[in-house]
Amino acid sequence: MTFELRNVSYAYPRSRRPALRQVSLEIEGGQHTAVLGPNGAGKTTLVRLLLGLVRPDDGVVLYEGRPAAAWGRRQIARRIGVVSQDGPPSHPVSVREFVEMGRHPYVQPWARLREEDREAVRSAIRRVDLEEFEERPVNRLSGGEVQRAKLARAFAQGPEVLVLDEPTAHLDIGHEMQLFSLVRDFVDEGGSAVTITHNLHLASRFADRLLLLDEGRLLASGPPGEVLRGSILSRVFRWPVRVVDLDSAGLSGLHVVPVDRERDRGRGVRFDGDGAEEGSP
Amino acid sequence: MRPGRGRPAGLVGLAVLLGLAVATGLAVGPAWLPVGEVWDALLPGAQDSPARAIVLSVRLPRVVAAALSGGSLAVSGVLFQALLRNPLAEPYLLGVSSGAALGAVSVLVLGLTVGPAGLALAALAGALVAIVIVFRVASAAGYLDTRILILAGVVVASFFGAGVMLVMTFAEGRTTRSALLWTMGSFGNASWGMNLALAVYSLPAVLLAFGLSRHLNALALGEESAAFLGTEVETVKRVAYLLASLLAAAAVSVGGVIGFVGLVVPHAVRLLWGGDHRFLVPMSFLAGGALLALADAAARTVAAPLEVPVGVVTALVGVPFFLVLLRRSYAGGAG
């Protein structure tokens, strides 16, 4: 499934400043795209537009060449699975019931699940390794388990695309790697993924393509090596950063490290006053 | 305990409970009738007797009204709780029931002859006015604050309650039903005509609510997540609000304002059998019917030969329950 944004602008009601300004981009199938940028850059807005939750003030969002507004939610839900930042359900729900909701776009709202639905639910739970927690209420899971349950629910939707909104916020590094690996497996099998994240390092390792947003504008787009550059990141995050290639440590990916203005002074880092500093390689 | 187990058995159990509650309602009153005599009276072709007259023309319409109203109020509560993601939401506490009462009373006082079906529509209009006011107040912050919602609901309820009292004062002697009946509830005036109207509105509304089951389940995750799972959230919300208001209004137009049925019943069902609306809706309908039929029986007997308003009985049960729930939901638990 391909997404396309053409010249999209959007401002929230009661807000004068647009959250997104004239963004154009295309997201093709079979790729993992990471959306990066500082807080308030428009990442979540971009994804809300992609998901058809809000309509652009200007420009158009297309799914497979058709305007997003022409798609029903049920049709969308059969193609796009979302791992959102929503809190726990308003009443206790077991992991299995939670994942069963992923079959919502396939069954009538009053009907029982069919055997194929049950199988999809079982395989989704197996995939994220939550079989032993099937009967446990979701609100009694740990943070990492909750995220995996959400991922299982998205898998149960049988999606072509996964959209993840800061899926590893509050997770430790082990759980981060576990979650991103599950997403990578999905992409390797031909799916595509769009992930909002603050973790630039994991984005460099797991994403094929990065989108860098700042103040509602798309500043850069391309493979990790092109987008993650000290000069541009220092300007966007308003803090000097250095980009370290982990190849020298025998690892894949890049590490983006903020510079400590006090202690790192004189270690080959150039400071240009208090404004936009450059972390020079 | 694993929620979700034993739900088919639970459905059967609640149907039996409703049957027992109806039987109780038919047997008790100023004259206590043995169950055998009640049964004989219900059989077609039975001989005319005082017992048969009491059961068929006095008690049966009343018990049916109580059961249908109780089921309607309980399902109305289920819908409001799902829509608002708040276990305290129910038609009485949201001011919907009082709005409905004022709508119905206004029509009666204006001297319009509308019949029971028209009266329920007038009640629906009042219910919708109430809910719009409550939502406006609770959305003052730019989003719907569910804590303010209940506060606004209770205040609006007392305002509309005062309105009912005021209107009824002018209508003294012109209608058969008293202000007390409208504000505290009673099925003393129930008739087959009323029951027919109630059934015509309530039963399809309950069926439609059942038809929304999985959408209501999805809404428990939040509106955005529900949309991600394929629910057309705005459409479902509009339909569900209308059904919830209609169910409450239809019940109020027959029995007046009766609180807490919509709070106690869905909560108890959820505790026992989990929150899946495919079971929660029909189970709450049966349990609500049983509860209100029993409450009405109690209202007729505890102070016999005097009658206590049935809303007094439900409040005596419901208020302690509400306080426990309130404490728990403000102490951080999600209900």
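Confidence is low (pLDDT under 50) at residues 271-281 of chain A.
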